[in-house]
Structures are given as C-alpha cells and as structure tokens.
Write a structure and sequence with these properties.
- By secondary structure, the protein is mainly α.
- The protein folds into 2 domains: 58 residues, Orthogonal Bundle (Arc Repressor Mutant, subunit A); 117 residues, Tetracycline Repressor, domain 2.
- 66% of the residues lie in helices and 0% in strands.
- The chain has 10 helices and no strands.
- Helix 1 crosses helix 4 and helix 5 packs antiparallel against helix 9.
- Keywords: DNA-binding, Transcription, Transcription regulation.
- This is Gamma-butyrolactone-binding protein.
- InterPro entries: ArpA-like, CprB_TetR_C, DNA-bd_HTH_TetR-type_CS, Homeodomain-like_sf, HTH-type_TetR-like_transc_reg, HTH_TetR, Tet_transcr_reg_TetR-rel_C_sf.
C-alpha cells in the first residue's frame, strides 16, 4: 500500500530496476539516515549503474521522498471488520512491522528526520491519519465511540502519539519494546475514546505479550 503519489506505468524491466533501487535506498537510509547516506553507497548496494539510477531518480532527495511516500508498500495489513478492534490490530501489527520491515522502517525514519534536511513531506502523516480515521468512522457507526470524540482530531492525535512512541522505543531498545508500548498507549487512550461497554468487548493483549523481537 502506498500514499497517493503513484509512479507512472513503466516497462517491466524499468519497474524492476526501480524496485531494486528503492529497496537498496531503504536499506541504507534505515541504517545510517539521510545525512550519512550517499548516492554512491545506494548505487553500490543496488548493484546498478549510475545511469540506471538517474533514469528513475535525479537525486538522493528524490529517492528519500519515494521511500517516505511508499513506506507502507510491503505492509500486509491484518484482515478484519473495520472498527475499533481493527484499528488496534493495525497499530499493534505496525509495531512488529517496524521491527522487521526495512522499507517501512526507512520511510518512518526519514519522515521523522526530514526537518534536518528540509524535505518538508507532511503528506505521509496525512495519509496515515486518513487510514486511521476510516477505522474510527466505522467504529462510530457501530456505536463504539463516545459522542464527544472527533474522528479527524483523534486520528491525527493517534499518528502523533504513535510517532513519538516509536521514537522513544527506538532510542530505548531499538524498538524491541515497541509492541508493548503501543498497547500501553491504547490503555491510556481508550477511556477517552470509547464507552466502557465497547472497551470490554475489545481484545487488548497485556503489554509485553506481543511480539518483542529485535529490530
């Protein structure tokens, strides 16, 4: 799954080359960040010629923007009926994905660090907020939300809280404790979001019981 900026249709060989390049860039960005990454390092990792790289991206900045926009391309979101339980399942699943999905991890790292390099790409945050808002809208139809809840505002709050939580987890444990932190986040947020009878019907694992593998 990707944000709205989709690449134009291209020949299969060109598409494969772009895919190899994007993933090599994601590996390098995930390892060293934007500032320390270089096109030379990315080209070497991809095993491509300079000409092949510049056919698709004119600069390191262009590569970084692509990784940010397409960060969720490899994520297989959990199945389920839209609503509050599905939203919880998605966010806990993403916590595990951030430990092992290089493209997602790189895109998130670049989105967080972009102020340092003046990329100014807010669209990805808007995309995640819209994704979460869809689940909240479904929850509203099921009577799972408190009357005072604003779905748009809460979706943006969730994106911000998730972003901050994963940064703290990265610094503390290289995201090894991120699933538990996200479950704790939900335990704090749910009383402000849903009535007690709706919360009682949700499945929320005890923090620390979710997948805790290292990044």
């Amino acid at each position: 799954m990707q944000v709205d900026r989709m690449p134009q249709p291209m020949q299969p060989r060109a598409a494969r080359t772009r895919e190899v390049l994007l993933r090599a860039a994601a590996e390098v960005f995930a390892e060293v960040g934007y500032t320390r990454a270089s096109l030379v390092k990315i080209i070497e990792r991809a095993g491509l010629t300079t000409g092949a790289v510049y056919f698709h991206f004119k600069s390191k900045e262009g590569l970084a923007r692509a990784v940010i926009h397409e960060q969720a391309a490899d994520v297989e979101f959990p199945q389920g009926e839209p609503g509050l339980q599905h939203l919880i399942d998605i966010t806990t699943h993403l916590a595990v994905e951030l430990q092992q999905n290089t493209l997602l991890r790189a895109g998130v790292r670049l989105a967080v660090e972009q102020n340092e390099v003046d990329l100014q790409e807010y669209e990805i945050y808007r995309w995640w907020a819209e994704r979460f808002k869809e689940e909240l809208a479904a929850a509203r139809l099921k009577g799972q939300l408190l009357p005072s809840v604003d779905e748009t505002a809460f979706a943006s709050l969730l994106v911000a809280a998730y972003t901050g939580t994963q940064i703290m987890s990265q610094l503390a444990t290289q995201r090894a404790d991120l699933p538990g932190r996200i479950l704790s986040l939900w335990q704090c947020l749910l009383p402000a979001l849903a009535p007690a009878n709706a919360i009682a019907q949700l499945t929320i694992p005890v923090p620390g019981s979710a997948g805790q593998g290292g990044a």
